[in-house]
């Protein structure tokens, strides 16, 4: 890749626009929390509820990180929610049906996720199926596969010692008994930090941005675009595997019919966090903040006992509003 | 821009503040976490809960995930409900094992939990408000006996042989026939998993194997619809089918005479009794482990009856 091609997205990232966007998103998150705290001080800002919010963000947060990579390439992955479930089911197969040791099952689930990402990536690059359709197909295929493998019944991990600790245990609480933050939250932040490093400091990250900015230019500069695309989808798939472990551990079961629709929550978190669906820009921090805006909003509305129909209306409005204000900022800057 | 977005967020906050009813410090608040909320069945449960809330002067909220697979979303709802420090809690578990840690938390906080619709595998719950499957299926047996003239061969197409509804409905029917109608013989019990197609194949086979068969009891919506389909495809006439629950297809089959009638649960009663049980528990009353929420038999003649129509769904 030549200097000029890589400089464009790089400059954009360093120009400060993204820092400003993160600040804006962060300010919205704080504003939401202040509003709920003022309106419902005795219930919202309690330790139990804050831990509840953190816990409810773990799965969507991790899925949103996977989606961020793919959306930055100007692709889309509709299969993330169902892939998460498929990985959870495979964890069940490894740990419960085959009785393999815990670490093998954990690594196995992540590898399964990455392999499914490879399949999506190959369908997109070799079969020339558009990402929307390729991953839609994967979504249906994997949903069916999960149901077939489990015989439509959940797989329970009750006999797998330590499995529920992945999400529900608390290493932090062990050290600081006053802060029983579940491991799932810790894993979310670890995945976020590692992904941010990959996105900003490695070749994979550079090509992720470059593909989203100008795929043709990258191709012309002699880069094997197809190979990098497959690698990026595989990376996303592996992260979905982690989400699968988180949800399976939290529910102590692999629920085969779950997961559809979660990809849309993940995409919403990504765009609220300032990543553009047209590709080329985006940050992991923004995505994490986006995921928290969603879960704080939903939790807060529940705490306020807002009727469920209205929760949906308001969540929808907030998503549109968030992207609108982001557009305004981009238009002016 | 920063201030603009903050202002927008604040405006939104104030706007939804308006949707919340005024809450006094003394009011008794009981959230109900259901298995769903869009489905007609759950709307009927909600309606019953709202009625009981009015009668007993308590405040209830009713929430459930969008599909009955979203176990994790239901747990988030349960978690938020507990954060509100309710006086009691109604809970219809999608997967009761997954909810145990939170239910233990409720127990520690001395928040009584009333299970509704289906039980929870734990003694944390005070009571369970649900349909008495055995009694409901016994009513189906009585109706069957009445329609076939108290004598002849009948069969059961069950939806499964492990769940409490599956075994309860099967045994309720079979035992009532055995104890009350000596001239009726249950010649076969088969399981179709509640699947339309499988149940239809079973019904066809039953008609083949037992040419004198006079009646079939389908223990849930899919089993009954399947029985109807199978008998139609086998071009048999004069076989009495009694179904369970409702649903558009089953209602259509009742209207066109394929199915004679069905037992419906009473979702309105489930909602009402759940809130009532919570109120009684808070007053210190002792409750039975199971509260029967009632059921009705319906057919073409009474489907439009407001009491029946209210509990039927498409």
CATH class of chain A: Mainly Alpha
Total number of distinct structural domains of chain A:
1
Round the Cα radius of gyration of chain A to an integer and report it: 20 Å
SS-derived structural category of chain A = mainly alpha
- Secondary-structure element string of chain B: HEHEHEHEEHEHEHEHEHEHEEH
Mean pLDDT over the residues of chain B:
88
Shape of chain A: globular
CATH architecture of chain A: Orthogonal Bundle
Given as residue ranges, the uncertain stretches of chain A (5+ residues, pLDDT < 50) are 1-16
| CATH domain class name of the largest domain in chain B | Alpha Beta
* Sheet with the most strands, sense and barrel status of chain B: 6 strands, parallel
Please estimate the helix content of chain B.
40-55%
Strand content of chain B: 15-25%
Tell me how many strands of chain A there are: 2
User: For the largest interface in this structure, which chains are involved and how many residues does each contribute?
Assistant: A-B, 52 and 43 residues
């Amino acid at each position: 890749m030549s200097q000029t091609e890589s400089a464009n997205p790089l400059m954009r990232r360093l120009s400060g626009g993204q820092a400003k966007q993160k600040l804006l998103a962060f300010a919205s998150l704080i504003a939401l929390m202040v509003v709920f705290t003022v309106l419902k001080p005795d219930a919202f800002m309690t330790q139990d509820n804050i831990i509840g919010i953190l816990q409810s963000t773990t799965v969507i947060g991790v899925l949103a990180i996977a989606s961020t990579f793919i959306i930055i390439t100007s692709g889309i992955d509709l299969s993330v929610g169902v892939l998460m479930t498929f990985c959870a089911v495979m964890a069940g197969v490894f740990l419960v049906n085959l009785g393999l040791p815990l670490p093998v099952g954990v690594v196995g689930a992540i590898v399964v996720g990455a392999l499914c990402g490879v399949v999506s990536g190959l369908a997109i690059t070799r079969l020339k199926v558009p990402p929307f359709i390729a991953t839609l197909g994967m979504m249906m295929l994997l949903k069916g596969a999960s149901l077939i493998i489990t015989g439509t019944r959940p797989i329970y991990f009750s006999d797998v010692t330590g499995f529920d600790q992945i999400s529900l245990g608390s290493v932090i609480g062990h050290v600081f008994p006053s802060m029983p933050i579940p491991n799932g939250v810790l894993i979310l932040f670890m995945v976020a930090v590692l992904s941010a490093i990959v996105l900003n400091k490695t070749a994979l990250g550079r090509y992720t941005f470059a593909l989203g900015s100008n795929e043709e230019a990258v191709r012309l500069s002699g880069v094997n675009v197809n190979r990098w695309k497959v690698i990026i989808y595989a990376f996303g798939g592996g992260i979905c595997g982690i989400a699968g472990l988180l949800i399976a551990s939290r529910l102590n079961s692999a629920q085969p019919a779950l997961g559809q629709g979660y990809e849309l929550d993940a995409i919403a978190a990504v765009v609220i966090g300032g990543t553009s669906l047209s590709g080329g820009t985006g940050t992991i921090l923004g995505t994490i903040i986006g995921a928290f805006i969603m879960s704080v909003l939903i939790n807060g509305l529940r705490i306020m006992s807002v009727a469920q129909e209205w929760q949906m209306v308001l969540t929808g409005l907030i998503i549109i509003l968030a992207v609108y204000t982001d557009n305004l900022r981009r238009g002016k800057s | 821009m920063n201030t603009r977005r903050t202002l927008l967020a604040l405006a939104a906050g104030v706007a939804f503040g308006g949707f919340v009813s005024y809450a006094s410090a003394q009011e008794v608040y009981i959230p109900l976490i259901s298995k769903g909320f869009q489905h007609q069945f759950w709307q009927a449960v909600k309606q019953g809960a709202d009625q009981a809330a009015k009668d007993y002067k308590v405040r209830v909220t009713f929430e459930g995930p969008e599909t009955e697979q979203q176990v994790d979303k239901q747990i988030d709802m349960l978690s938020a409900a507990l954060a509100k420090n309710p006086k009691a809690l109604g809970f219809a578990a999608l997967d009761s094992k997954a909810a145990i840690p939170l239910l233990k938390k409720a127990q520690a906080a001395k928040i009584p939990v009333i299970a509704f619709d289906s039980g929870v595998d734990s003694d944390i719950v005070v009571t369970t408000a649900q349909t008495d499957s055995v009694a409901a299926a016994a009513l189906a047996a009585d109706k069957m006996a009445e329609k076939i003239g108290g004598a002849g061969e009948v069969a059961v197409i069950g939806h499964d042989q492990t769940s409490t509804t599956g075994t309860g409905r099967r045994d309720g029917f079979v035992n009532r026939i055995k104890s009350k109608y000596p001239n009726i013989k249950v010649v076969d019990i088969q399981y179709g998993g509640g699947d339309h197609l499988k149940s239809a194949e079973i019904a066809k086979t039953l008609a083949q194997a037992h040419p004198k068969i006079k009646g079939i009891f389908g223990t849930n919506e899919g089993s009954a619809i399947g029985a109807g389909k199978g008998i139609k495809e086998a071009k048999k006439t004069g076989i009495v089918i009694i179904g369970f629950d409702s649903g558009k297809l089953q209602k259509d089959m009742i209207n066109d005479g394929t199915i004679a009638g069905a037992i419906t649960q009473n979702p309105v009663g489930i909602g009402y009794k759940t809130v009532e049980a919570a109120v009684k528990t808070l007053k210190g009353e002792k409750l039975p482990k199971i509260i029967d929420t009632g059921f009705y038999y319906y057919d073409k003649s009474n489907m439009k009856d407001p009491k029946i129509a209210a509990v039927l769904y498409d």
